[in-house]
Structure formats: C-alpha cells, structure tokens
Design brief:
heteropentamer, C: 345 residues, mainly alpha, two-stranded antiparallel ribbon, 15 helices, 4 strands, disordered C terminus, D: 243 residues, alpha/beta, four-stranded antiparallel sheet, 9 helices, binds adenosine-5'-triphosphate, binds magnesium ion, transport (chain D), ATP hydrolysis activity (chain D), ABC_transporter-like_ATP-bd (chain D), L-phenylalanine transmembrane transporter activity (chain D), ATP binding (chain D)
Chain lengths: 386, 237, 345, 243, 294
C-alpha cells in the first residue's frame, strides 16, 4: 500500500524547542498506533509517514519549509506550526497550493479568520481563552461570595501576550473592573523584580498573566519571594503549563489558576492509559499542546478514511464534514471535533486547573467548568496570604 | 669558543627569502657592528636569531646550544635579548612598567632594583618620567626606554637594532657611550645594527657588512673604516 | 566609467556568460521550493552586498543591519496597507527613511572604531526592534507591535508586487543583486572607494591627506542603508507577513555579517560566495538533521563557521578566485597547447 | 610672500607645556628647518599646524587665513600636507594605491590620479615597487612612501617629520636633490630632522627649539655656531668634527 | 516612596550581577581585542555545571565556586588553546581579528545546541538553602542570593583590578595586549597569556554562574539575553575596563528597575538602548574606556 506523508512544521530548536519536541513525540506515538492498527483501511491499509521540519520559530524558515514539504516532499497534508507568527504565513503558503493545513495549536484568532479554505484549527482561539478566564472569575466570585475590584494584567510582549491583553482590556471594561496595572514585559528579561515591585504596589486583587516558561518561573518565584498578596492569579497556559514550570517554581506556584485546553486529571475515557503510555515512553506527561498534536493525527486518519483519497479536494471536503467523536480523541476535554465555516473547531473548550501541593510535588487539579471539577475538590479562592 | 655562532642561515618571510647562507660568530665580551644598506637584511638577521622568524635552514647556536628551533620567549630567558627596530614600547604602560616588563624573564627578576638604578643613572630623563605613559614620550625618550628595557633583561648578549635612529646629535653621542658602558660594566656582549657607521664602528671591535641578505665583508672595525668599498658605499665619501 | 571597458575581454565574457546562465535558471527549475531557496540565496547575497558598502569598504563591522531591512519592510507595507500605495513606490520611501536613519545613527557611531562600532550597531538594531515591538501605531500608520504586518493575498499583480509564481520574484531580486554588484564595482574603482579604504585603515594618515573620513563613511552608510531597505520591501512582498523578530532581529543581522565574512568582506564576489555556502548549509542541515536530533544541525552550522575561518580566514573569495584564475589560464592557453597535446597523445 | 605664520603657539598636555610660545614664519618657496633635542616639541608643533591637535592658544595663519584648531582634512585641502614621524602607510594596500589616495585630493578621475602617482613614485624611486603591499616595505622605503603620498596631494606647504631618519649617509645624499627638486617646483617645505647634513644642506632658515621654546633662529651656519644650540642640541663633538 | 528605595537597591544588586556577567567579556576583549560571542554560552556551561553540582551534592550553592570556577578556567584555557589559537595565528598582524568573532559565534552555536542535545530544552531551577531567602527591612524585600552576588562582584572586581594593575602576570597580560611581538621579546609567552586570559574570562563567567544559579533558572540558551546585556554593559563602561563593566552593569540594573516604576518594563529595555547611544555620542570611549581604544 502507499504511504501517506504528513508534513509537520514545528519549532525543534531555538526558544520554543521544548513545546516543539513535545508535539513531535505526541505525533509519533499517534502515528505508530495508527499504523500498528492497520493504517488507513479505505486506502488499502496505507501507512502514515511523518516528515518533520524545524521552523526555528522563524517565519521565513517556516515558509521555506512549507514550500519544500509541499513541492519536494510531496506531503499530502500539513500540520503546524505552534508559533502564531509562523502559522500565519505558512497557512498562506498552504492556501496558495491548496494544501490542507491542520493547526493543532496556534491561538491567534485571525489564523482562521482570513477566509482561507484549507486551514483547520483544533485548538481554541485566543478570544475564547480570555473570555473563559473572565467567565471563570465570575463563577468564582459567585461561588465564594468574594468581591473583586482591581485587576492587573502582566504579559509577555510577544504577539501572544499582547493579543491576550487587548481582549482582557475589553472584557475588564465590560465587567467594570478597574485595571490597576497593565504591564507588558520582554519575555527575554533576565530580571522581573521591577515588574513584581510594581505589581505589589498596585494593590491588585486578581492578576491575569500570559507568560512563556522562563518568565513564568521568574515571575512566580519573585512574587513569592517579595510576598505579593493577591486573591487569585489567573494564567493562560503556555509557560505556566510547561512541565518544567511546576518543577522549577515548586511551592511558589501553589494556588495559581491556569487556563488550559486539557489536563491529565480530566475524567475522560482512555485518557489515563494514553497518558501512562506516553509518560513511559518519553519521561514526561502529556499536556494541552501534545494532546492536540496527538488528536490531530487521529483527525487525519479519520479524514483520510472518509475521503478514501489523498486528493486535496477530497481531503478538504472530508475535513469540512468532520464529526469525530469518542474513540481515541475522547481524551480531549470535549466530545467531538467539528469545524465551523472558518475552519475553527467549534467544540474546542477550555478548562481551568488549580495548582496545589501534593506531598513533595505539585499537582494540577481541574476546577472549572464545575461539571468537570475533580470530585471532592474545593478550589482555594481567594488564596491565603503569604 | 664563541658565544653566538651562526652557520649557513637561510630565512625569510613566508615564501620570500631574505637571508642567504649567513654565517658569523660573536665572541664573549665583544661589541660587533652589523652594517649594510636598507633592506640588506640586518633586522631580519636579528629576528632570525631571536626567534621572531623561523629559519628555513642553517643553525644558530648560543652558548653552545642550537637555538634555531627554540621559541622567542624562551631565548630571552637564556640571556639573548633583542631590542627591536622602531622601539616597540608598551604604549599604554608607564615608563616604569615598561622597564619592569624588560625584567620579566626569571634571571633578571632578582637584580631588578640594581638594574633599574643603573638605567636611571644612564638616562636621568627616564627617572623624571617614570609615571608617564610611554605613548606620550618623544621619540628620543622612547628610544631610551627601549634600550633601558633591554638592559633590564640583564642579557648575556644584547642585540640593538638602530638605537640611534631619530636621536638628536647630542643624544646620539650619549647612546653610543651608553652602549659602550653597558658592554663594559655588565660584561654584556653586544651586537649593534647601525646606519651611523662612524659612531658604531668607533665603539665596536669587529663588524660585518651585509648586502642583499648576505655577509659580504667582515673584519676589525678600524680596518673597515678605511676600506674603500665601505667608504664609497656607506660614508658617501 | 572607462575602467568598465578596460577589462580584459575574457573577464567580460565570463561575466556575461554567468549572467545569461542566471537568467536562464527558471527555464530549468520548475519546483517552487527550489526557486524559493534560490531566491533566498540571492536575497541574502543582495543584503550582504549592501552591507559590504559599510562593512567591507569602510573598515567597520556593522552588526545591526537588519534594522534597515525592517525599516524597508515596515515603511512600504504600512504605506501599502494604509494608503494603498504601490510597494514599488513604498520601496523607495523605505529607502529614504532608512538612509535618514543611517545618517542619524552614523553620525555618532561612525567615529567609533572596531568593536565599539560593532556593539553600538547591535544596540541600535535591538533598540529599534524593542521600539517597534512596543508601538501599535505611528500617526495613521499601523505598526501593530509584536503582532507584525500581514499583506493580503491578491492575484498576481505587478502594481501590488505580488505574484503567484516564484519566477518574477527571482528576476526582481536577481536584477537588484546585479545592480548592486555593478555599483560596488564602480565604487571600488573610484575616489570614494579609495577614500573609504584609506579611512578604514589609517584614519590619521587619511585625514592628513585631506580625507574627511567620517563624511565618506557616512556616504557609504547612506548608500548601504538605502539599498538594504529596498531588500526589506522585497522580503515583505515575498513572505507577505513579517513581524519585528523576523525583519529586525539580531539573527538576521548576524547572518548578513557572517555571509560577508565567510565569503570575503570588501570584495565584490564575497557576499555571493558566502550566501552560496551558508544558505544551503543552513537549509540542508535543517532539512536532513532537524528531526533526528534537535540542535544537531546548528552544531554543524557552527562547525562550518569555525572550519571555514580556520582554513580561509580571508573568506572563500581567495581560493575561488585562484581556481577561476587557473581555469582561465587553462582555457585561454588551450588553442596553443592543443597541437602539442595531440603530438604527445 | 608669507605662507605660514605661527604666532605665540602654545600646546599643553596635562601639566606639560610641549610647545611654549613659538613663533615661526615660512616664506613662499623657502625650506625651513626645525631642530631641537628629543622631546623638544617639534612633532607637537607639526601636529598643531596640520590640525592633528588643536593648539591650546596662539594663532596659526596660512596664506593669511587663521587655521588654528581646524581639522586636518580641511588644512590639507588648503594646501598643507604633513608626513608622520611614525609612518602610517595603508599597509594592506599597494604602494600605488597609497599614492593614488593622496592624488585624489586634486582630482576625481582615476586616470589623472594614477598618472600623478606614477610621476611621484618615479621621482622617489619607488616606481618598481608600485605593486608591492606597503607592509612589505622596509622602514626607509616606508618613509619615502610617506613622502610620495604627501607629494601626490600637490601641497603648497609640505611638513616633513624625520623622513630621512634611518638612511645611511650616502642615501641621505641621494635624498637631498629630490627634496630640492620638490622645492624648486614651488612647494615650500618645513623639515624636522636630526641629520645635520640634511638640515645644513637644505634649509634657508633654521629654528631651534628646546623644551618647547624657540632658542635660536636664523641662517643655518649662524645657528650651529650658537653656543646655546651647541650645548642643548649638537654637543661639543659635532662642532669638533665639523671644523 | 518606599517602592522607589526598594527599586534603587534592587537595581544596584541585580545591576552588579549584570556587571559580573560582563567582566569576563571585557577582560578578554581588553587583551585579545576579540569580542567573545560565545560569552553567554560559556556562562550557560557554568550554570549547568553549578546546577548539577548543587543538585547532585545538595551542598551550599556557593561551594560550587570551588568546582565551577576552576572547571571553567580550564575549559576556557583549552578552548583558546585548541580552537581559537590557530585562527589567531593566521590573523597575527591584525589588531582586531574579526574572523575570531565568527569562530566564537561558531562555538556559541555548538555549545548551546550541544546543551540542548544533552540536557533537553527543559528549564531547571536548583533548590538550595539560600533560594528564596529574603532580607526584609521596612516592608522592603531583598533576595539574599542577590546581596551575596553583589558582594562577590565587588570582591572579584577588586581582585581583577589588583591583578591587572599590580601583579607581574597582570602586567604581562597588559603588555601582551599592547604589543604582542614586543612582549615576546621580553620573554612573555604570548600564547600562554592568551590561554590564561581566555581561561580567566571564562572563570569570571563561572563566578557569575554560581551567583546566578541559586535564584535563576538554567536552560540551553540561558546565555543569550545575558550576552546582549553584557555587550551593552562593556561598551558603556569602556571596553577592556573591569571597573567600567561593573559600573555599567549597575547603571543598566538601575535603569531597568527604577525606570520600570515610571513606565512599562518593555520601555525600560528601549531606554537602555537610548541611554547607550547617548553615552556613545558624548563619550565614545565609554565611561572608563581609553581614547586609544575606540
Ligand atoms: N614582514 C615582512 N614581510 C615580508 N618581507 C619583509 C618583512 N620585513 C622585511 N621584509 C623584507 O626583507 C628584506 C630585508 O629587510 P630588513 O628589515 O631585514 O632590512 P634591514 O637591513 O634591516 O634594512 P633597514 O636598514 O631598512 O632597516 C627587505 O627586502 C624587506 O622588504
Ligand atoms: N599626547 C601627549 N600627552 C602628553 N605628553 C605628550 C603628548 N605628546 C607629546 N608629549 C610630550 O611633549 C613633549 C614633546 O614631544 P614631541 O613628540 O613634540 O617631541 P619632538 O620634538 O618631536 O621629539 P623627537 O625629536 O624625539 O621626535 C615630549 O616631552 C612628550 O613626552
Ligand atoms: Mg632594519
Ligand atoms: Mg618628533
């Protein structure tokens, strides 16, 4: 049988190498499983073959790689590219060549808002993230009867953080919060003490944060050291969801509320087994990014089965008609993958976890939405003073 | 036995050969002049002896040992010191520090104080300017430091490359006198490369004449002064 | 311009042959991805040749040249997005802005020597990047901070500087490169070139000979910045998306300088040779190695840098011109030798 | 006509007065010699005239125009070119390249600059070395190159700082007619030299400087007989060998 | 008000640590006239060494100084001896050998990515007895590890100043930096001096690494932001000047920390560059630099 090539453009070196490698491992595990289970049956048991290329988090490289994957490697479908800044121009290239492009994660809204016919995103977009952070805050205020007046925004000054902050501002205005600090910082900063001093003096009740791994660690540790007391810290995945963050920040990270797409303690069929298998294989646990990458391979399998062809038009048609529920994608936080007009997975939803100490280690416990909250756990809100 | 003897030395820069089969010897306690026109290879000869350029063939032996493969810094320690053309002071260091560097090699360290006093006695101007940066000295002052630095190394054999270059007549005389005194007081053997034939031959015992990378003439200094060829070519008489 | 004609006929012949060959490339290469790689090689050769005016001839080492690529890209694109101004016109606007910026930065820094200048330009480049990342709007012009600018897809259109095929991009950048090389050649053989070289080597001596060194350096800077910015517009139109780190980053600045140094700075062919070596090494190692061991391809890239400098400290231009010389000897002496060969055979 | 007129020039370095109230006058067509012990301030005076250092006070007039404190390139444009005691050739460039840089002072055309260069190189006996890189020259050759390069700018006034240092007497004798020839085509010259043979032969007028101050001035033969000059500069021996 | 005092002190503390990270760079430049682009990577190597030492033995983190500093000294010594020296020899007559810059960049790529291969892209934080320990005065908080770091910087600065000004070896180092050939003629072994200086420069990175590890994270490209900062610092202070580097670091730390109280942290980054260019305008040789060097 023929093999079907899947091109993947992800950052394998440079500043985002860590997530890139997670995504690579997840894809490899999924493809192994799919091939072991007999490949694509409607294509005579065709096997999937992964082709990876390193974007170095650099758009130029991403585009060059996309051109190469499409024209020289002759891949049948593309996935990528994690960094919104790379995904952006790469979807354009895909569009030009009519190549189906699946975006497991890359949150910027506009990626699916440019009227492209070949771009399909599994993950939620950033307006949904910020919306859910404020919804969560509303729910917590109600649940615990706590008032919140002052909010602070602290975010890395890349397109991701700045994009989030724009939405936060709108949302805070709608809900009548007073923004006492609106502080972008360079994510390569070697010292964030100045930001923390400012935060401390700002008398914020709740801090919203968007950070990459390094700065998340610095901020969290410095905030604990300088005894910054707030009612809650609400973060946006990314650095705060990075496996090395919990290890590096340790107890200082306790009580943080982190918004993510997925969490290992979700009560979902098959999740535990898959996560155990992954952890055994690669030495660390699945995370939102890697789950989406994992699911993207099963999505491709499903699409190819239904398309019965590798022709782009057929694949695209099958993608539009996707209604992939249960099975191995059941480990997602929601039930089915379905795309709307723009190519956005309309079911993509988010959960909030709280970080707590468990023995010597830190643990992430799902708390929101309430219907998926871990049984028997009551969130700590507001967090105790330091 | 000679202190320094050179046998059939060939040397140059990269591909370009500038010394051809040079042989000469220097006896202990002598002052020997090396004279010759511009580009004759005098400076190159000194460089080859002190290890700054590596010979292509031939041997240089100093105190009975072949030093043609010994690195330049090691040769200094053995007592062979080269005071190069063009002064080459450490511009951003003081006069004192320059002299200190002269005494860097381990033999000279012990007698640092005594040698320093000698140098200051020889060139009182340097004592005045101890703390001045070398780059701000006038040409003549710099030349004094360069020679002083050579003395500080307490050499067995000192090779001076054009020490009187650019010096006022009154100083020139002093420099030659100083060279002579160094030779006597310190029992230092001296190789002197000079354009000022009259003065250098006056203080030296023997001399070699170089032309186009070869030794063309050698002999007692006084004899050379009267040699018709030397007279015509170097004294312009 | 007489010296252009004073060249030996064989040299002119070779040059024309190579240029003809370059123009014919699209007839043989159909794959857009290969074209893309070729375009990028030429693009980098172009940027490096522009860099060469300052870095090669004025005797200093600028390490912040991506700033001018960025100025070019941002100027033409914001004008295009806000006023619909054709990028072709915006390109020259960008060039002018870059030239003005070049004067601003050149006035204080061109007096500096060696390492100071290099580090000052790094700081300037980084400062500009930080600035752009912090700015949403300048007057009516959308800068959009770290989010970058996106040019909407249109059909192939010369006025919009957008083409579905890679071929037009190839020809545009090729012509740009050839023009810059010609300009370099003319300059090297003129008073400005001589004055720049002299000022770069011994400033005091040059000034004593009546050369206002800082002024000539500034002229070189203006030319260099202007041309570099044109390249920025080209890049923007080729990629249709860019953001501060991609056009204003240090990495781009370093790469430009490395290409020049590996190829041979201060020579006409150096930038081209450097780009011909470094770009493919960069691409190939990434393609073939990045999915086996992360980072291995960059280790190899690093080793290539070290090895080339170890064995060709003056850049590739030296051995290459030796080979060309040898080849030329072979060819030109062919007819004479031919009969002899026949006999010995 | 007075070409250069230095009036009460003073140059101080932190604490040290290197040039102290020096007056100097150069007539058109003259060769003026400056002598003085090492460290007397001769090079510093040149630096002030040529603009490499601004004088602390005093006036320097060239063709009636005040030039004190102006930049070296402007002063060169006015017609004063100097050579450096510590030579500064463009070492990685050829001899011809070096002089062409100088020759561009008066033309923008390559061919003219080259023609001028070849002319001075011939005159200074460097023609055969024109394609050699300057770093491969010997010191005296470099000194001649320094002179050639300065000459290529076609100056009205040439400041020569020890261009003959390191030459043997016979070579000095060869240089003398060259300098006289330069002078004869209308270039005025100020020359600093320790080689008395040259000073005596060339100068129309000699200034003697000691500790930054002018101690004597006048006809060369008068000056060398001045007891103060003998004491400070020449030494008794010089007098003895000359007479 | 108290916020400003706290900022000023924190700025000085962090600034002196920045200065510390730049000292090695300025030292190497001062003698070899080479900008060591691998500087940040060497800091990274030191941080990994300190991290592993502290994590594996669990001892007081400052004991790592006794292991990491000698380790980096020899690392630098042999790096210069085997990798950089041959290139230097080819560029003997050039004052600022630019090819060496490329070589150090090559070393940078190799080291950073080797670390990625060996240790992965993970961020690591060493848990030590001093980590997170604060000095609290009037509601102002200062991290002990930064205070110790500033102290170490001061001591190292004094030591290096003494070493270069007054020790025999230090003078030989300066002599070599001024005229390599003449130094050889004094019996100073030039290549050995270079090895030593490169080793010392790297050892300074080792000191900085040990100071950083108790409160900072470690990962393969951790050196890059410090690198650029160090470039700015050494030029501000005057290339080749040790006190200049430390003072430059403190200025940067102050701008960063105090400036951030008046504007967004991203703008202080910008302010640093503006200030930098301003200093170049008015005093091109930097605060402590020698005129001859620019
Ligand atoms: N670094 C160098 N590279 C190449 N050739 C050189 C170098 N130094 C000197 N030469 C050449 O070697 C030859 C001899 O030069 P050298 O300096 O030894 O002469 P010299 O007798 O000392 O002359 P002078 O009286 O001018 O000092 C000259 O032809 C010179 O051009
Ligand atoms: N930049 C400077 N800083 C401090 N002192 C200086 C500087 N330049 C020169 N001097 C001092 O000024 C005095 C005059 O120096 P100058 O070089 O003018 O002497 P000179 O007459 O040319 O001597 P020579 O004949 O030896 O070349 C010297 O004592 C010197 O040390
Ligand atoms: Mg000589
Ligand atoms: Mg002088």
């Amino acid at each position: 049988a023929e093999t079907i090539k899947i091109g993947n453009i992800i950052p394998l070196s440079g500043p985002s190498a860590s997530v890139g490698i997670q995504g690579k491992n997840a894809r490899e595990m999924a493809v192994e499983e799919i091939n072991a289970a007999g490949g694509i049956k409607s294509l005579g048991g065709a096997k999937l073959q992964l082709v990876f290329s390193d974007s170095k988090s650099d758009p130029t490289t991403g585009v060059t790689e996309a051109e190469r994957l499409i024209n020289s490697e002759k891949v049948h479908v593309l996935t990528g590219a994690w960094n919104s800044a790379v995904t952006y121009p790469v979807t354009q290239t895909a569009e030009r060549y009519g190549m189906p492009f699946i975006v497991p994660v890359s949150v910027r809204d506009t990626i699916t808002e440019r009227g492209f016919k070949n771009v399909f995103r599994i993950a939620a977009k950033d307006s949904w993230w910020t919306r859910d952070q404020f919804k969560f805050l509303d729910d917590m205020k109600k649940e615990f009867g706590v008032d919140v007046k002052n909010v602070a925004f602290v975010y890395e000054n890349g397109d991701w953080g700045v994009g989030f902050a724009e939405k936060w501002r709108e949302m805070a205005k709608e809900r009548g919060y007073k923004v006492v600090l609106d502080e972008p910082y360079p994510s390569t900063a070697s010292d964030l003490t100045p930001v923390v001093i400012k935060l401390k003096r700002s008398k914020a009740d709740v801090v919203f944060m968007t950070s990459n791994a390094a700065d998340a660690i610095l901020l969290t540790n410095t905030m604990a050291e300088m005894k910054v007391n707030v009612k809650a810290i609400i973060t946006s995945g990314g650095g705060h969801a990075d496996p090395s963050f919990l290890k590096a920040a340790g107890k200082n990270a306790e009580y943080i509320f982190d918004l993510v797409e997925w969490e290992a303690d979700l009560n979902r069929p098959g999740l535990k087994e898959t996560n155990e298998k992954f952890t055994k294989k690669y030495g660390y646990s699945l995370a939102g990014e890697s789950v989406d990458a994992y699911a993207s391979m099963y999505l491709i399998k499903d699409v190819l089965e239904r398309a019965g062809s590798t022709k782009p038009e057929a694949v695209r048609k099958a993608l539009i008609e996707t209604n992939l529920c249960g099975g191995t994608v059941g480990l997602l936080a929601y039930d089915c993958i379905q795309f709307d007009q723009s190519g956005q997975n309309k079911n993509a939803s988010l959960v909030i976890v709280q970080i707590r100490q468990k023995g010597k280690d830190m643990e992430r416990i799902t708390v929101w939405p309430k219907n998926v909250r871990r049984a028997g756990y009551t969130p700590v809100f507001p967090q105790p003073n330091k | 036995m000679s202190l320094l003897s050179i046998d059939k030395l060939n040397a140059g820069y990269g591909e370009i050969q500038v010394l051809f089969d040079v042989s000469l010897h220097i006896n202990e306690g002598e002052i020997v002049s090396i004279v010759g026109g511009n580009g004759a290879g005098k400076s190159s000869l000194l460089k080859a002896i002190s290890g700054l350029i590596k010979p292509m063939s031939g041997s240089v032996s100093f105190r009975g040992e072949n030093v043609s493969r010994v690195p330049a810094d090691e040769i200094v320690t053995r007592g062979l010191v080269h005071v190069p053309e063009g002064r080459r002071l450490f511009s951003l260091m003081t006069v004192y520090e320059n002299l200190e560097m002269g005494a860097y090699n381990r033999n000279a360290k012990a007698n640092f104080k005594r040698n320093l006093e000698e140098v200051y006695a020889l060139f009182p101007r340097l004592a005045e300017r101890q703390k001045q940066l070398a780059c701000t000295l006038s040409g003549g002052e710099q030349q004094m430091v360069a020679i002083g630095r050579g003395i500080m190394a307490q050499p067995k054999l000192m090779m001076l490359d054009e020490p009187s270059l650019g010096l006022a007549p009154v100083l020139k005389k002093d420099i030659f006198a100083a060279v002579k005194r160094i030779a006597i007081d310190y029992e230092t053997t001296i190789v002197l490369v000079e354009q000022d034939l009259v003065n250098s031959l006056a203080i030296s015992d023997r001399a070699y004449v170089m032309e186009q990378g070869q030794v063309v003439l050698e002999g007692e200094s006084q004899m050379l002064l009267t040699d018709p060829h030397v007279k015509a070519a170097y004294l312009g008489v | 311009m007489k010296f252009l004609l004073n060249q030996k006929p064989s040299n002119i012949g070779i040059a024309i042959g190579i240029i003809a060959l370059l123009f014919a490339v699209p007839m043989f290469v159909s794959s857009p991805s290969v074209m893309q790689i070729l375009i990028l090689i030429i693009f980098y050769a172009y940027l490096t040749s522009c860099w060469n005016f300052v870095g090669g001839f004025a005797g200093v080492l600028p390490l912040g040249h991506s700033a001018f690529v960025g100025i070019g890209a941002y100027t033409s694109t914001t004008l295009y997005l806000t006023y619909g101004l054709s990028p072709w016109i915006g390109m020259f606007a960008g060039g002018i802005v870059a030239a003005l910026m070049g004067i601003l930065i050149g006035l204080p820094t061109l007096k500096l020597r060696g390492a100071y200048f290099a580090l000052a330009t790094i700081a300037f480049g980084e400062g500009l990047r930080v600035f752009v990342e912090n700015v949403e709007k300048i007057g009516p012009l959308e800068i959009r901070g770290p989010k970058g600018l996106l040019i909407n897809l249109t059909e192939s259109s010369f006025a919009h500087f957008q083409f579905m095929s890679k071929v037009p991009y190839y020809y545009i950048i090729l012509v740009m490169l050839l023009l810059v090389l010609l300009l370099t050649y003319i300059m090297m053989n003129s008073k400005i070139g001589y004055y720049l070289a002299a000022g770069g080597e011994e400033k005091d001596a040059a000034e004593a000979l009546g050369i206002k060194v800082s002024r000539y350096k500034l002229i070189a800077m203006i030319i260099s910045c202007f041309l570099t910015a044109l390249g920025g517009t080209f890049y923007a139109q080729l990629m249709l998306y860019f953001y501060p780190k991609s056009v204003l980053g240090l990495e781009l600045s370093y790469e430009i300088a490395f290409i020049a140094l590996i190829g041979g700075r201060g020579t006409i062919l150096g930038p081209v040779l450097g780009a011909l070596l470094l770009r493919p090494v960069n691409e190939l190692t990434r393609i073939y190695l990045s999915d086996s061991l992360p980072g291995l391809h960059l280790i190899i890239f690093g080793l290539v840098l070290i090895i080339v400098m170890r064995y060709q400290p003056r850049g590739l231009v030296e051995p290459v011109s030796r080979w060309i010389g040898m080849l030329k000897d072979r060819f030109s002496s062919k007819p004479a030798v031919k009969s002899g060969e026949a006999v010995t055979d | 006509m007075v070409l250069l007129e230095v009036n009460k020039a003073v140059k101080q370095f932190s604490g040290l007065t290197a040039v102290n109230n020096v007056d100097l006058e150069v007539q058109e067509g003259q060769i003026v010699g400056i002598i003085g012990p090492n460290g007397a301030g001769k090079t510093t005076l040149f630096n002030c005239i040529a603009g490499a250092l601004p004088p602390t006070s005093g006036s320097i007039k060239f063709l009636g125009k005040e030039i004190a404190g102006r930049k070296p390139y402007d002063i060169c444009k006015l017609g004063i070119t100097r050579t450096f005691q510590v030579v500064k050739p463009f070492v990685t460039k050829t001899v011809l390249y070096n002089t062409v840089v100088g020759a561009f002072a008066n033309t923008n055309r390559m061919d003219e600059a080259e023609a001028k260069s070849l002319e001075v190189l011939r005159m200074l006996d460097l023609y055969d070395k024109r394609d050699i890189q300057a770093k491969n020259l010997t010191l005296p050759e470099r000194k001649r190159l320094e002179l050639a390069r300065a000459l290529a700018t076609e100056p009205k006034l040439l400041l020569l700082d020890e261009v003959m240092a390191g030459l043997r007497p016979s070579e000095v004798s060869e240089m003398l007619p060259i300098i006289r020839k330069i002078n004869s085509v209308g270039v005025s010259i100020v020359i600093v030299e320790h080689i008395m043979q040259a000073i005596m032969n060339l100068s129309d007028r000699v200034y003697v400087i000691n500790f930054g101050k002018k101690i004597a001035e006048g006809d060369p033969h008068e000056v060398v007989a001045d007891p103060e000059v003998i004491k400070a500069y020449l030494g008794d021996e010089y007098v003895a060998t000359q007479h | 008000m108290i916020g400003y005092v706290e900022s000023v002190i924190n700025g000085i503390l962090m600034g002196s640590i920045y200065g510390l990270t730049a000292v090695g760079l300025t030292l190497i430049f001062g003698v070899m006239k080479v900008i060591n682009f691998a500087h940040g990577s060497i800091l990274m190597v030191g941080m990994f060494a300190a991290y592993w030492f502290v994590t594996l033995t669990g001892v007081n983190p400052y004991l790592a100084l006794f292991v990491v500093v000698p380790f980096l000294y020899f690392f630098g010594f042999y790096l210069q001896k085997f990798v950089i020296k041959p290139i230097f020899e080819a560029e003997k007559d050039i004052r600022e050998p630019i090819t060496v810059i490329i070589v150090t960049t090559g070393i940078w790529y190799v080291l950073d990515n080797l670390a990625l291969l060996l240790f992965g892209a993970e961020f690591r934080v060493a848990k030590t007895v001093v980590s997170g320990q604060m000095l609290e005065i009037f509601d102002m908080y200062f991290l002990w590890s930064k205070i110790i770091g500033a102290g170490v910087t001061l001591l190292l600065g004094i030591y290096l100043y003494w070493f270069l000004r007054h020790s025999r070896m230090g003078k030989a180092v300066r002599a070599t930096s001024l005229d390599r050939e003449a130094a050889t003629l004094m019996g100073i072994k030039q290549t050995r001096i270079y090895n030593i200086v490169f080793g010392l420069g790297c050892a300074c990175c080792g000191v900085a690494a040990c100071v950083l590890v108790p409160f900072y994270y470690v990962y393969p490209t951790v050196g890059v932001p410090f690198d650029i900062k160090a470039f700015v610092i050494v030029v501000l202070g005057g290339l080749g000047s040790v006190p200049g580097a430390i003072l430059g670091g403190i200025i940067i730390g102050l701008i960063e920390t105090v400036g951030a109280q008046f504007m967004a942290a991203t703008w202080t980054e910008m302010l640093i560059y503006v200030f930098f260019l301003f200093v170049l305008f008015v005093k091109p040789s930097g605060l402590f630099g020698l005129k001859q060097d620019y």
